[in-house]
Amino acid sequence: MESEQNGKIKAEARRGRGAVTNAAGRFEPYARVGFDDGWHQDAPRASQSQVAIENPRSVITRNTSPDISFDRSINPYRGCEHGCIYCFARPSHAYLGYSAGLDFETRLIARPGAPDRLRQELSRPRYQVAPIAIGTNTDPYQPIEARYRVMRGVLEVLSQFRHPVTIVTKGTLIERDIDLLSDMAQAGLVHVGISLTTLDATVSRRMEPRVPSPKRRLQMIERLAGAGVPVRVMVAPVIPGLTDHELEAIMGAAKDAGAMSAGYILLRLPGEVAELFEEWLKEYFPNRAARVMGRMRGMRGGRDYNAEFGARMVGQGAFADLLRHRFAITRKRLGFPGHLPKLRGDLFAVPPKPGDQLTLF
């Protein structure tokens, strides 16, 4: 095929993308292997994003994971154009019949009906309010949000219902919504986490090809904090042997920009992500690949990944203990509290519909 050879996507075709391969999804009955048969003479062109529309039957996803702080979330999009090679959500694309590689970055699903569906779900008489997390799987402020504005619509609904929400993003489009976020923050209804993996612009561009630069993300923290929005810097993921040495510097830079809290998550390599990440390492950091994967396996019981609750976010062993210790010392030195202020749920109310009779008191 024109854009593949020996399973690897040619450099011209993956310009601006993270994955270096695009293996068939694990549920697919056939695999595709590209090779140069000599017939195609035109230079491969960069892969273009394709967006399909999904009309969700429900938008609030529930979970019972004991090591995360929320029990419900919303995903405005499936797949993510940011192209972060380490993204633990990549394997979810296999359920759609796509690859966790390049497809995850280019075969995107938008859910423009999500705001209306959310309004219906929040209006149910038995709905019990608790913070909704957004951005825990794919980024709600990825580039296609500028066109589809699904996240803006979701945020408008949450604001109307006075519903608490937590947001995690790397996208500068969040600054477009500062008007809503500032009002919600004044009422104690929103926290924002900005993910910052490295301060090295070169490493960031290779690892997160369509994500704003580290410097630009620090500006996002500054602008959100300046608008009164509580911001938490997420040093996530921490990659041993590649970015772990920056932990203290990242936390310090975020503190200077106005972050109120900090957290970190160790690199996670579930499913296809392990192979994709190792391929990427060998392509861009061949002299560090063995060291990085060796460190990771040392914190995962000799495996690429350990999904055990309580360990999957932070790892195990001496190096994982050292990372926890460094984080705790730095957090104390910088004056970061353990948590942001608790979000309010007592303000939640279903807005009256047009024509509804208002209460007298």
Helical amount: 25-40%
Overall average residue pLDDT: 91
Top CATH class? Alpha Beta
- Structural shape: globular
- Using only C-alpha atoms, the radius of gyration works out to 21 Å
Q: What's the SSE pattern?
A: EEEEEEHEHEHHEHEHHEHEHHH
**Which segments are poorly predicted (pLDDT under 50) over 5 or more consecutive residues?**
none
Number of helices: 11
**Termini separation:** 70 Å
- Largest sheet composition: 7 strands, mixed
Portion in beta strands: 5-15%
Please give the CATH architecture.
Alpha-Beta Horseshoe
Describe the structure.
The termini are far apart. It contains eleven helices and twelve strands. It is of the alpha/beta class and 361 residues long. Helices cover 30% and strands 13% of the residues. It has one domain (51-83, 109-334): pyruvate-formate lyase- activating enzyme (Alpha-Beta Horseshoe), CATH 3.80.30. Helix 2 (114-122) packs parallel to helix 4 and helix 8 packs parallel to helix 11 (318-334).
What are the key terms here?
361 residues, alpha/beta, 30% helix, 11 helices, pyruvate-formate lyase- activating enzyme, 7-stranded mixed β-sheet, single chain, globular, 3-stranded mixed β-sheet
Short description:
The protein is of the alpha/beta class and 361 residues long. It has helices at residues 102-106, 114-122, 145-148, 150-160, 178-186, 201-207, 214-226, 247-257, 273-284, 289-298, 318-334, and strands at residues 4-5, 8-9, 50-53, 61-62, 72-74, 77-78, 107-110, 132-134, 165-169, 190-195, 231-238, 261-266. Helix 2 (114-122) runs parallel beside helix 4 and helix 8 packs parallel to helix 11 (318-334).
